[in-house]
Every structure is written in structure tokens, then in C-alpha cells.
Amino acid sequence: MGGGSRDTAGAMPEESTTPDLLEFVRHLLHAAGMDGDVLARFFAPDAVFLTGVGRFEGRDAIRGYIDDFNSSYDEQSFVPDEVHDLGKGVAWFSAAVTGRLRGTSSDVHLRFAVVVTHEGGVVSQWTDYATTDEARAVAERLAEERG
């Protein structure tokens, strides 16, 4: 967001799947508060990003969505609550976002949950869910399907 630093040191994912998923998610959420260029590096070139407002395919589309989202805030931060690696390239996490809408004194406090599939240290698909129960159920089903 506007309050975030453009310094990207430590914000890049590891070359192979990060052994510490919590640390990867922390870096990912930190990057979400920066700009689309920084966050897009966490995604495969053909990644899919699904949110309540639409489907964004590929790094350029993801970058554009993040930049549009971030332009609504003067400052914001994302903090993970729970992070679960189910194996087979499937993980889910919940997080809280707090921020101040651009040009106002209004604070925003949101909770959300995400299911990600990942491979080679990058996200191949990100899907937002309104509740942790929904994200958990989808992630467990997906991990089971991947056998």
C-alpha cells in the first residue's frame, strides 16, 4: 500500500518449495501490501488468482488487480492467522487485513481465507474464501484428489 516500502529484500520466494510455509505466506502477504510487481513474482507465469471480484490469469493480470486494489488504500497491512500445508502442493491460510481507505479517516478490518496450490516455490492458483471453514474444506478435498 501507500505506506509500504518498495524495498523487496527478502520478499522473493525460494527457488524450490519453501520448507517453511508460514515464512513464505508472511513474505507473500507483506508483498501484497506493496505493489503488483513485487507480489506477481510469487506467482507462476500462468497462475490464476480468483477473488470475489473476478478471475485474473497470468502475472500481468494479477499485477493489475493488486495495483488497483492497493490504490484504494493510503496504508494497509496483512497478517496471517493460520497457515496449513496439506502436502501435495496444497495449502490454505487465513489472514487479517487492516488499512485506511485513501483520502479518508475510515479504517477497514477484514478477515479472509485463501487456498493456494504451489509448485517450485511459486503459487499456481490462489482462491479467496469468505470463511476459514470453507477454505479448509476445499483445501482438504483438493489435497485428497491429488492423492
Keywords:
single chain, 147 residues, alpha+beta, Nuclear Transport Factor 2, Chain: A, 6-stranded mixed β-sheet, 6 strands
What does this structure look like?
By secondary structure, the chain is α+β, with helices and mostly antiparallel strands. It has one domain: Nuclear Transport Factor 2, Chain: A (Roll). The chain is built from four helices and six strands, in the order H-H-E-E-H-E-E-E-E-H. It has helices at residues 21-32, 36-40, 59-70, 132-145, and strands at 43-51, 54-57, 73-87, 90-101, 107-119, 122-129. Strands 2-1-6-5-4-3 form a six-stranded mixed beta sheet, with helices on both faces.
Major sheet summary line: 6 strands, mixed
Approximate helicity band: 25-40%
The strand line-up of the biggest sheet is 2-1-6-5-4-3
Low-pLDDT ranges: 1-18
So how many helices?
4
- Sum up the overall morphology in one term: globular
Run of helices and strands:
HHEEHEEEEH
